[in-house]
Specification:
Heat Shock Protein 90, 5-stranded antiparallel sheet, 11 helices
Length: about 475
């Protein structure tokens, strides 16, 4: 019996040894593969981080340079302070990334907002300065450039983006990534020693505790799914960190849900305010233009009592617009009347003509509308004034905006064409979406509201893409044959 027991024990030890060797070999293979791919994964992630950082730096720099007419006259010290504030703000979202700008052959705006040293880092790294200049020089030729420097104890990734004259650059250090062979040996040695001790001493105890802990966590998760204000019990064993992480996730989710609700309320209020402001702008512009016209007529002593009617009409229209916005959930049904829209169109053009003259843009009206159509006069005025003002806004001094009226395939068609930069295919896809705009100012509601008002009248507003330059918008109304 003792011999049989001894042999059985030896056999169990042999099986345990074989299992341990198998586990160790598998562990070695997995660790080797992991280390082999670790550097490429880390570098890929770093490349993406630096690319996003450069895009943000370049965008903010362009906004600053093009938005300030005096930028080119500022001394280098003032530009440095301004650019440092920009890079400090942008790079704060990219842990471990430092960088700045290279303007007029000088480093400006350097910052390292996530530096964890005793004092803020203010100067371009001296050890990598020459390499940074080489990367920037390559970026001047290729628009973008990147280089990986292998140090004794770490990797340094440098990237730059240039418009041919000025550049934005960023750099990130990856500690402990420069000696993968030595790291592999250290990791293998640590893994084998840990596996030898932990595998022998902790399998049984860990298995029992793990089974009980998993059962408790599963029960707690079931309760947590029903009521997210609850939490898992605090544990002091191996699963305690998991319980703490799940509890922290629950708290984070509650915070995020509350924040999302606050942001949704703020966003809704912001959009409503933006819509009201945008829709009020056109009537106010019309009133202002009318008053300017009345002032001119008064100076010329040509003022007539009836001249004030245009201002009164615009005030009434603005009052009606406010009523519509206050009852936004139930838009006013259109008041369709059989009208010839030619005279109304002429009034719309007259309202905005002064704005065109102010910007040096010539308004040219052609065609004639004598056919009747069903139209809501208030909606029609709002659509046409908005389309013409948009065309004036994108036009430069000396250019012209064409307003062409006519009939086509049973429709009364009014085209508004400008000589501006036109629209890309991507911009055309989002053109009539609410709050989408291609201009630096505005809320992107004008075209969306114009299309909505046209549809309410049974009409349509569309974009014509046949023009090589500029843009053309078409309002089509159903014609009524006499």
């Amino acid at each position: 019996m003792k011999s049989i027991f001894h042999k059985r024990f030896q056999l169990q030890l042999l099986f345990a040894l074989v299992a341990a060797i198998s586990v160790a070999a598998l562990t070695i293979e997995l660790v080797v593969n992991a280390v082999r791919h670790a550097e490429s994964f880390v570098l890929s992630d770093t490349d993406r981080s630096l690319a996003h950082a450069l895009q943000d730096l370049d965008r903010e720099y362009r906004l600053r340079r093009h938005g300030d007419a005096t930028w080119g006259k500022l001394p280098a010290s003032a530009q440095d302070l301004t650019l440092r504030a920009i890079s400090q703000t942008v790079l704060a979202s990219y842990p471990g990334v430092e960088g700045g700008f290279f303007v007029s052959a000088s480093f400006l705006g350097y910052s390292y907002p996530t530096h964890d040293g005793a004092s803020p880092k203010m100067d371009v790294p001296a050890a990598e300065r020459a390499s940074i200049e080489e990367v920037i020089a390559q970026a001047h030729q290729k628009n973008k450039s990147e280089r990986v420097l292998r140090g004794k104890h770490d990797l340094v990734v440098i990237a730059a983006m240039s418009d041919g004259l000025n550049a934005a650059w960023a750099m990130k250090r990856l500690p402990g990534q420069a000696e993968p062979r030595q790291q592999t040996q250290n990791i293998l040695l640590t893994g084998l020693v840990g596996a030898a001790f932990l595998g022998a001493a902790g399998v049984l105890a860990t298995g029992v505790g793990l089974h009980r802990g998993v059962a408790q966590i599963k029960s707690g998760l079931a309760s947590l799914n029903q009521n997210f204000t609850l939490g898992l019990p605090v544990r002091r064993d191996e699963l305690g960190e998991i319980s703490s992480a799940i509890n922290e996730m629950a708290r984070a989710r509650r915070r995020l849900e509350e924040e999302v609700r606050r942001e949704d309320r703020a966003r809704t209020i912001g959009r409503l305010v933006g819509r009201i402001a945008h829709e009020m702008r056109n009537p106010l512009n019309s009133i202002r233009l009318s008053l300017q016209m009345l002032a001119n007529r008064q100076e010329e002593k040509r003022l007539q009592p009836g001249d004030f009617q245009m201002v009164i009409d615009e005030v009434d229209r603005m009052n009606q617009l406010l009523s519509d916005l206050l009852s936004f959930q139930q838009p006013r049904p259109p008041k369709l009347e059989q009208r010839v829209v030619g005279p109304i169109l002429a009034e719309c053009v007259q309202l905005v003509r002064h704005q065109g003259e102010k910007q040096g843009v010539d308004l040219v009206v052609s065609g004639e509308l004598t056919q009747s159509t069903l139209v809501d006069e208030h909606y029609f005025r709002q659509i046409m004034v908005n389309l013409i003002l948009n065309a004036i806004d994108v036009s430069r001094r000396g250019e012209r905006v064409d307003v062409t009226a006519g009939t086509l395939d049973g429709y009364v068609a009014i085209e508004v064409s400008d000589c501006g930069p036109g629209l890309t295919s991507e911009q055309q896809e989002h053109l009539f979406e609410p709050f989408y705009t291609t201009k630096m100012t505005g809320h992107g509601l004008g075209l969306a509201v114009s299309r909505e008002l046209a549809q309410i009248m049974g009409a349509s507003v569309s974009y014509k893409s046949e023009r090589v330059h500029g843009a053309t918008f078409v309002l089509q109304l159903k014609r009524i044959d006499d």
